[in-house]
Amino acid sequence: MNEFDGILTAVVFLPLAGAILLLVFARTDRWVRLTALGVALADFALAALVFLRYEVDSNDRFQLLDRFEWISTEVFTAQYQLGVDGLSAPLVLLTGLLGLCAVLASWSIKMRVKEYFVWLLVLQTAVMGVFVSLDFLLFFLFWELELIPMYFLISIWGSGRKEYSAMKFLVFTFLGSAFMLVSILALFLADGGAQLDMIGWAESGADLALTVIPISVVFWFFFVAFAVKLPLLPVHTWLPDAHTDAPTAVSMMLAGVLLKMGGYGLLRITVGMFPDMTIDYALILTVLAVVTILYAAVVTLRQTDLKRLIAYSSVSHMGLVVLGIGAVGMAAGTYSNLGLTGAAMQLFTHGTITGLLFLCVGVLYERTHTRYIPDLGGLAQRMPFLAVAFVIAGLASLGLPGLSGFVSEILVFLGAFKAFPWLTAFGAFGIVIAAGYILWMLQRALFGPTRERFAHVTPSNWVERIPMALLIISIVVVGVYPSLLTDVFNAGLASLPAMTGG
Amino acid sequence: MISEGAVWAIFFLPVVALAVNALVVSPFFNHRPGIAAVVIVATLGAALALSVWTLVSVIDNGTHFFGEYTWLTFIGMEIRFGLMVDSLTAIMLVVVTAVSLMVQVYSHGYMKGDPGYVRYFAYMSLFSAAMIGLVIAENIIQLFVMWELVGLGSYLLIGFWTHRPSAAAAAKKAFLVTRIGDFGFLLAILYLFFNRAAFMEQGLDPLSIADIQAAAPLVTSGAMAALGGLGLTWVALGIFAGAAGKSAQFPLHVWLPDAMEGPTPVSALIHAATMVAAGVFLVARFFPVFEASTEAMAVVALVGAFTALFAASMGLVMKDIKRVLAYSTISQLGYMMAALGIGAYGAAIFHLFTHAFFKALLFLGAGSVNHATGTFDMRYMGGLRKIMPWTYGLMMVGSLSLVGIFPFAGFWSKDEILGYAWKGGSLVDTAVFWLLAVSVAMTAFYTFRMMYMTFHGQFRGGVEAEEKEQDIPAEESHGGKVHLAESPWVMVAPMAVLGVGAVVGGYFVNPQAWLFGIPVHWFSEFVVPPVVEHGKVLPLNSVLAAVTTIVALGFIGLATAMYVKGKRAGPGVERAVEPVRRTVEGKYYFDELYEDKLVSKGFYGKFGGFLEWFDQQVVDSIVDAAGWISRNLGWAFGRLQSGQAQFYGVGITTGIVAILVAYLVWG
């Protein structure tokens, strides 16, 4: 059963290797930055290669496998098992892209530069690892590994109440992880199951496994872990704090890929391994999703800090992921796939869009030293490129067609409406509120007369423009021709047991 | 017969103009901004030529459908984009490209020296492309995409002068209000897709426009029971919500007058001639669905007719020339909607066609006046007749057409609608007729009030007097200057072309009797597609036409008496109408109701405030309390270990995993 393609191992551990390299060799800040950039570029190239090498039409569900036995005893075997399917391949690409953008967005970091980039690269390894691990032990290790760099990045390089926010992030995620650990143990101890092998569980479905605790508890414990990460109401309050106090690049990674771990977990594990359970509880999931979408949207409207505003909008938009998942409620069939495709698309599109939004805020904050919206205004004339990028990101976020956000929204709505028309209709009203908070934010931050105090503000520089341009390109390309991604996601989602009537 | 590539080219030509202006001219040739105008005029000129060719081809061959391209796939289903070119599309293409071309030529003069000159033409290209894409769309999602992009174009162009707070606010308002309507449109799409199985049984695609049109009669005949009952009514009302937003129908009319914050050519193009017509187009596009539902038709008819009257009443008292025209536009769109609602498909589109020319002309005229006086406030105009004879003459042509005086274009189209309402005997028809008839009188009055205040009497100082008296804050200043002179030919010539349209666009395309080989009622007959049951053409009701003309002339006379001769009603009457006047001038307080009461105080203040409080004080407090407990626990553990309290959690999990692994390995 041993296979070794190598590319996934490389894409996961290259950033870690880079981090070690930095620790050992890098002397000056300049070299630290350039090395980190080189590593991020190489990892992005590898991630793109993974995405391109994934074959949509292949009969093999999981591809590019790296696997061998890692821990082997009489009662216990853990595989080192990495692989991608149509669900994870685009997320690997997303992580590579945002990792690169995050390094560029960190160019202006002045304090403890080496340490900072080391943690940033470690973070990338952890997230990549989560997306490609196909063994529960490995998955859980990567899931937990991500906490350490995040904790340091927020508490050292953050602003405001950074220690409080970092702690809050840690406690919340930890609480979720504890639930997940119980579920993993329960699956491991199940009679005749696949133990820690995620491929095995994905193929057989865990719904009927006989475990030490009721299977519905296993399902809900997994769900809680992912709901915290996503986040879903009422366990979302760590997110605005963490986002607001994190440095720019870390906010980008947090919103861009870390939240996606929650969505990925929901799709890979709750939907993928507990299809019947998901269908049974679809109504509850949908209600939670709709409440999250609307509640967070209204709270977003009230925010006066740019980062907090975007953070709350993320909560609202992540509700769409769960709305799409709830669409499996109409029992197995073709429509349910539609909602899931939308949910998966939302992971990708929200990653790029929110990454760009946070990047724009960071670039702006660098110059204005305030994120308090009533103090801003008139910046479009001082920073034209930033204004264009910010407006594009905002429009994508409110679901303007032609940009990527619309594609995932329409797919989620088409899928979910079939299952729960009234609830979906309510949820869809979120797009009206979204237009409200986004346009109001843009109006207050960018437009109006130039203010005296911003007379010294300089336009964005090239190091800032490159990641903005990269993200804009991805938003436009996916928005204009979404088949590039939907075909891949479909290939991954079509083989879920829920979709094949399992 | 026209080829597929040629039709796509109509769409892609302005897209190319957008790309060239945004990516080449703006960054590299900003010192030669004229290139931007040349690019867009050339591409739109070519697009106009192709549109005319398309029209000829549709006249000869009927509706064209062209290849479909997969945009999105999901299991068992694809969303495909293609082209549907029927008579309605062909007419719309010509209107959009022709009016847009004239407006671009005019803009070259009007926007001269503006620092955002290239950006302006980039936005204009985007807008033109989206509008063209809207009318050629074959798939309802494709149509929705273009629909929203048209909204984007208007957002960018209304807020073009980003440094002016009122412009930014108006842009946001336009986008938001139309989006409320689009929400209804989206639900209609979702509902259609919801009934996908019923469509599939009939071999139809729920997202294809032609198939939706084909499905409506099947539902009526009972072959598609899933959509029976109120099903089609819901679809129709959802679509109408979208249309009402974009066409500024009551109660979503509030954004259009504010949209006048954009540059004046923008108002001419998108807030008079084409974009707001998109709503009318949308209802026409899905007309078979509306026809299948009496309720939906009645709603469209009554909302349209009420809007026509309601908006006209506000036009009577506005002081800003562009606002008079804006309310006039809302009112005229109400005519078109009402016409559709009573089944007068041909008349509605005919009115859309004539209105596009005369209203674009009037707006360009208002821009020309602004060019000379620096203001839009009619109280500071006056006496321009002698100074700007061309503008005056051309605006007079537009005005007569708007009022509907024989033989100008508006006369023919307006009377066709009124005749249809008169002929139909139902309660709805009668209500529509009287509402529209009263609006005719109001239209006559406000139009000539505008003409007299602007062009007659003595000049009252323009922007200089306005700024002195009104105390306008610096950031809101238009930066205009008074230089009393006729506008340059680059602005007058496009107005003249539109003026020709406002004269011949009526009788010559839709003659009442044989005319040089143009068949009788050619336009109305041509534009009504075979899938539409109603919309048959009626001969002109000459008695009715005569009566409405006399009424209109009477109210022109009243305006003359009041604004030229300076006659005023007695003080008793003035005092009696004072509260009415104030209500109308306050736009019936809809802005206050929506923005202040409902949104600011209600939704944002009360509801939003409560949720924010709840989030901070309830949800987060529980979390903090839980956090406090665990922190203290962690502290206790931390004391036992190394004092690193932050890592209590990591420690615990590591411990659990370690114990577990140990148990499994050795246990």
Describe the overall structure:
The complex is a heterodimer of chains A (502) and B (667). Chain A has helices spanning 7-25, 29-53, 88-105, 113-132, 136-145, 147-157, 162-188, 198-204, 215-229, 238-245, 248-273, 275-280, 282-302, 306-326, 334-368, 379-382, 384-397, 404-419, 421-428, 430-446, 462-480, 483-494; strands at 3-4, 63-72, 77-84. Chain A starts with a strand and ends in an 8-residue tail after the last helix. With 502 residues, chain A is mainly alpha-helical. By secondary structure, chain B is mainly alpha-helical. A two-stranded antiparallel ribbon of chain B has the order 1-2. In chain B, 72% of the residues lie in helices and 3% in strands. Chain B is globular, with a radius of gyration of 29 Å. Chain B has 27 helices and 2 strands. Chains A and B meet through helix 6, helix 7, helix 13, helix 15 and helix 18 of A and strand 1, helix 5, helix 6, helix 26 and helix 27 of B.
Please give a quick description of this structure.
The complex is a heterodimer of chains A (502) and B (667). Chain A has 502 residues and is mainly alpha-helical.
